[in-house]
């Protein structure tokens, strides 16, 4: 780098500090999301440190006898139940990371304008990336640092319980410290990388169809490999569950945007003013809507599976194969509920960003003669599409999957059917209510978005 | 669907009486008055920042006057709520803004059809009317193109088609031909004026361009937010 290049850095740093390339809200959400994900990862590492009874091998159905280590809850000492617990924690971690991803895309229109303007005065793409990375690295590092106190809060709740049966986490030790250092560095590094990627107008992404094809192939291969590798070895099955969950999340996140476009095309065919404006919004914010929908789908799926397992377990004799897993299933259901709340936060963030970045379109539509009530209905409908439809679909699929897994038949069929229906109806009702609440709370922002002053500048 | 005009045919299309408007502490219009008669074409001219666009937005009821009174189609806009002003606007007014007024994620035909869809026209009818207007403004497009794929001039032609599709009684156009070549600009201007006038409507054109002003019956010059003088051109 020449001296003249180096001389530009104070100016570039000054630009980074103005928030032109990363707003305060974006940085805060990135920091909070990273802190949450970091703390949950530290929890996962701690759970893995607790002594566990290994998963039995072989094809025979083994009654899961909960292994009581004198110091810990069977939730973490029984390897099979532990998988449920870890899946639940990782689900919430994935939701927190999706929220971070959503935050990273906010303000993209404003950022693109800024980077173009800076490019016009001679700032190189490399410098733009560096400035953008600088703007986010602080948020990432702050999130990583915050992960420790957040983990301590979790540890205080789950670690030092007087009764060992409720104790999920081991005592704080040097592995926690080491894990924290890794989390801080990873958060800072990933935030910087994300900043660099979002720092220029051109972001390279592989063609969607190849991503989808790759993920589907990987998913099919994983599902096919599990029984082949271990002739349905239970350990391979346990590993397979984790792999399938991870692949499902990746698949949902990858195809979410395409789904939003598909919904928009369907709405356009219906052709009413409300449908057409909803379709325009779905297209404009297909990425954030797709992300929110993907997390909602997975949260719904987890809710569906855990509700069915819970109901089946409660209805079967105490010495059955599922009885020992009851606390794990309950914890997974709680995790699924938490993931759903984070998914709604992700959808809300996308909706708020849409109002801020597309305010000119909102204002122009209002100027055309669209009443405020119609615009509110359009905005609420977009949010409903991003949340209610995927969550309910996920819950229905999860409930059916749960039924298939438990193999509930005979006298359990009416109970299972009732659980499936009530799970889907309750999930739909709750998400519908929360979505309506969010839309109502965003009315003020919508009013600001349709402010005709937005029409004055290009 | 037959549009029911809310105004009498001989009633002025819009009356602005001593209106004022400020953006924060910056005044845009002060004590400006203008009456546009039915069937009249008025050009509003003046230097940049003199309040031309603000006057247009006040006449359309997009902005609410902070001082004075605006009557659109015989109705006092100050007494109407936001929703009522929106309904009145879409029934009476066709609006062409300077830039960025098209919905970027809708195709050209859907953009043009939007005023009709907002009025509750069947989607098929609305799209047919929109396609016909696409041809009338001289655009050879499939109709599926997004605004981002159009040139500035094409976007202005689409905006004009959208303003005309619902046969407004008052057409308000802010620099409607600024991005068009002289010939295309003239043709579009002719189309806007003759179409609106043939149905008894009025036109207000905001422009720096003398050829646009020459197309009007009357020119109103603004200076520093006030009406400096009026010139009869017809």
From TrEMBL, chain A:
The keyword Kinase is annotated on this UniProt entry: no
Keywords noted in UniProt: Membrane, Transmembrane, Transmembrane helix
Chain ranges passing through the membrane: 29-48, 81-104, 135-157, 177-198, 210-232, 238-261, 273-306, 326-352, 385-406, 412-438
Protein name, entry field: FtsX-like permease family protein
Biological source species: Klenkia soli
Lineage: Bacteria, Bacillati, Actinomycetota, Actinomycetes, Geodermatophilales
Automatic annotation (TrEMBL), chain B:
Keywords: ATP-binding, Nucleotide-binding
UniProt domain ABC transporter: residue ranges: 14-234
Alphabetized GO MF terms: ATP binding; ATP hydrolysis activity; transmembrane transporter activity
GO cellular component terms, semicolon-separated: plasma membrane
SMART domains in the cross-refs: AAA
UniProt entry tagged with the keyword Nucleotide-binding: yes
Organism domain of life: Bacteria
KW Nucleotide-binding (keyword) present: yes
Pfam families tied to this protein: ABC_tran
Protein name (Swiss-Prot/TrEMBL): Putative ABC transport system ATP-binding protein
